[in-house]
Amino acid sequence: MRSRTVRNQERGCIVEPLEGRVLYHAGHEGLHIVGTLVPWTHAPIAPIVIVPPALPSLPPPVSPPAAPPVGSPAVPPPIAPNQPVPQEPGPTEPPGAAQPQFSTIQWADLRPSATPLAESLRGIYGNRLYLFGGFSGSAGPVVNAQYFDAASGAWTNIRSLPERITHAGVAQTGSDVYFVGGYVGNGPGYQQAFGSSHVWKYNFESDNYDRLTDLPRKYAGGGAEIIDGKLHYFGGYTQQRQDTNVHLVLDLNDPSARWQEAATMLTARNHMGHVVYGGRIFSIAGQTGTDEGLVTRRDVEVFDPATNTWSYVSPIPRGVSHISSATFVMGDRIIVAGGESAHNVQVREVWAYTPATDRWEALTPLPAPRFSGVAAAFAGKIVFATGGSATSNWLGTPVLATGV
């Protein structure tokens, strides 16, 4: 076996070979650990060979607009740091509801989180943005769970995850959120298994976790969504970190149900964004490969459960990954915020896709580059939290055209 040095931003570390052992440098924390290499074996798994159909030629990348100057007559006054999100009367409009269009966003600081996080799993309930697990500094994957209350601006801890989970597919319906597969911490720091078959359900009302039917194999880095009482898991990679276009479905209304195969994705990918819009699943961008070998993607696939088929729609203007928890529906558009354009290259870009017109539009970018953040819309505004192992959080206020 050849020895080589591995640098990995996701795990915040450098690993070097050292005479039959490994030397671990814990990123910015200054921690150094020497460990002995132990042979590891696993049952052989047949590789998945993907032959995707040819994509149509893609238009050249488009640069996002620069942030507008603060104080412009069309821009509302900024919100002071550490203040709650201003609430508008009435509940937040449901996905797909008509709302005024915008391309300009004014960003302001919100109260920071207690610990730096990246790759956290997202939940949304009422005025609360939930963050489950993720990577946190030298601690690696954590079990911590918390929520940001948009009404009060406060952070509150909740019951911890049953495992140290990241990279799980996340889907939500009503007061339940589901975590499918993922990386699981199995030792100190960044020691982890790169795949899991576990499926967990968390209920926002009871603050409890329940274990559901396991996946048939161990996966991570894929997407999950729920349509008509069925939990879909798609894409990602195997425990050997091989890309897969797998698509599995579990009937949540049948306690005895097992995962069933469904139409596979057109292209194997991981770390993509995904939402349900108009009764269909949108899988957006992502990457093939991992770490130094990753290649970001631009193509967007849509799954129609009525026909059990995937199809392509217009690609995002620039390839991006690490957007799983920062892709969301706002009115009649799908928003993608931040991400990674190449290994260790974080971006500020914010994009909006309109399914009705099959068009992408660049919005005002984030205040700073950020990958693997957690974002959602609340009362017509955008909350973007953590990501990139940061504690800072932002509120985005859309600036409507005069007379709108």
- The order of strands across the largest sheet is 1-2-3-4
CATH architecture assignment of the largest domain: 6 Propeller
- State the total count of DSSP E strands: 37
- Count of discrete domains: 2
Percent of residues in beta strands: 35-45%
> What is the fourth-level CATH superfamily of the largest domain?
Kelch-type beta propeller
What is the highest CATH level, the class of the largest domain? Mainly Beta
Largest sheet: 4 strands, antiparallel
Mean pLDDT: 83
Number of helices: 0
Bulk shape:
globular
Ranges with pLDDT <50 over ≥5 residues?
A: 1-7, 9-34, 36-96
Amount of helix: under 10%
* Rg over alpha carbons: 21 Å
Q: Your description of this structure?
A:
The chain is mainly β. It folds into two domains: 6-36; 104-399, 6 Propeller (Neuraminidase). It is 0% helix and 39% strand. It contains no helices and 37 strands. The protein has strands at residues 6-8, 13-18, 21-25, 32-36, 104-110, 121-125, 128-132, 145-149, 155-157, 165-166, 169-173, 176-180, 183-185, 192-193, 199-203, 208-211, 219-220, 223-227, 230-234, 237-238, 247-251, 260-261, 273-277, 280-284, 287-288, 295-296, 300-304, 309-313, 327-330, 333-337, 340-342, 345-346, 350-354, 359-363, 374-378, 381-385, 393-399. The strands form eleven sheets. Strands 1-2-3-4 form a four-stranded antiparallel sheet, with no helix packed on it. 43% of the residues are buried. InterPro entries: Kelch-typ_b-propeller (IPR015915), Kelch_1 (IPR006652), Kelch_repeat-containing (IPR053256). Residues 61-94 have a biased composition (Pro residues). Residues 61-99 are annotated as: Disordered. This is Galactose oxidase.
